[in-house]
Amino acid sequence: MDTPKPLDNFRADVAHIGKSVLVKGELSGSEDLYLDGEVEGSIELRDHSLIVGPHGRVRANIHAKDVVVHGKVDGNIRGTERVELKKSAVLVGDISTQRIIVEEGAFFKGAVDVQKETTTKAESKREMAMAASASFSSPSSSSGSASSTATPQSSLLEKKY
Amino acid sequence: MGSVSHSIFRFFRGSAAPATATVELPLHVARRSSGLKEFTRALAGQEGLRILDLGATSAINITRLTQFGHKVYTEDVLSASGDPGLIIATENGKPMYDVPRFLAENLQLERELLDAVLCWDIPDYMPEPFVKPMVERFHSIMKPGGILLAFFHTRDAGPDAPCYRYHVTGEDTLDLQRGPRFRLQRVFNNRHIENLFRDFASLKFFLARDNVREVLVVR
After folding, report:
1. Which end of chain B is less enclosed by CB atoms within 10 A, N or C?
2. What confidence category does residue A128 fall into, taking pLDDT thresholds of 50, 70 and 90?
3. pTM for this entry
4. Nearest residue, CB atoms, B66 vs list A85, A108, A112
5. Can you tell me whether residue B157 is helix, strand or coil?
6. A73 in a domain, yes or no?
7. Sign of the four-CA dihedral A97, A102, A106, A109
């Protein structure tokens, strides 16, 4: 069975919720989270990532920067940057994100809304670019943000019209 | 419940349960589709449309449709129709399908929400009592002027026509991926199809070479 092992994803700066843990209520934080247990309520990580492990069972709306699902989610997912459904994922709910990746075999019942880059982000990029050109700094100062849209998946975000 | 008129259906054959026959078929088949070409043309130049893709989750379809700025809804109603819990016993002990429950658990979308539906050949493989109610549900959740693309096998396709998952790979090209072994339940002729979609504004038929009739329906 080709399921990811929790320890493979272990990093000291990632909070872990093990598979025997049940959380009821609002779960929020300001660090990345690996969730292999059960959550009922809501999950709010905003600028951080959430991985729902293969044993993860979530009955909650999720808001995080990146969301990767191996387990089961019953609720809406708002991933401000990316949502990824692995082949073992079962999601019943809607997805709102900038980039969506779905592996063959994932089960998904709901709607996908791929958002354009948020105005504030686009504006901050524009400001960065203007500042960079005004100060005659090296091009690398603005290429950091540009490189994030140069990944293969980023083509999903590009407007065709 | 489940007592939908049988009059518009013919060649009804057995259970919708996955067949056990083991015929070696290619896993993927590439195919051109005139119906898809017309469907694509109808959506061209528009953005932010709401499109329902019926069948198992297709990453290819999600990627392709969201690329054009559309919102994609996906539901595997065929698998859902095979839920054993949907078969209930009547007072006289005869089994029947629980259509109200099927409709309560599936296609629960707002009225006149959808601009387009990719129905594929789901009606051919679905248990008969669900087909007409499902089409009626399409009518209520589609916008007036919305379009629906459906495929129907002709009699020449034979009873063991494989069930495929349709992936949109181009403006008029499909990748047919062999899917779960659902069994063809019946064959609709043109008149049956017209009856099935009689509440819709118009139908346009495309006869393909592979014993499949493509239909573009306008709500």
Report:
1. N
2. low
3. 0.79
4. A112
5. helix
6. yes
7. positive
Angle of helix A119-134 versus helix A140-147 axis, rounded to 10: 160
Whole-number Å distance between alpha carbons of B1 and B125: 19
Contacts of A45 (CB under 8 A, 6+ apart): A28, A29, A30, A32, A33, A62, A63, A64, A65
- Is A101 inside any structural domain? yes
pLDDT of amino acid B41: 94
Q: Do B72 and A102 lie within an 8 Å CB cutoff?
A: no
Say yes or no for a CB contact (<8 Å) between A155 and B67: yes
How many domains, in total, are found in chain A? 1
Residue A142 lies in a domain: no
Look up the domain containing A101 and give its range: 4-114
Q: By the CB < 8 Å criterion, does A15 face chain B?
A: no
Residues B127-186: tens digit of each pLDDT:
999 999 999 999 999 999 999 999 999 877 777 888 899 999 999 999 999 877 788 888
Inter-chain residue contact B75 with A109, CB threshold 8 Å = yes
- How near does any CA of chain A get to the CA of B59, in Å? 5
This complex has an ipTM of 0.81
Q: Domain for residue A13, yes or no?
A: yes
In angstroms, the separation between the Cα of residue B27 and the nearest Cα of chain A is 14
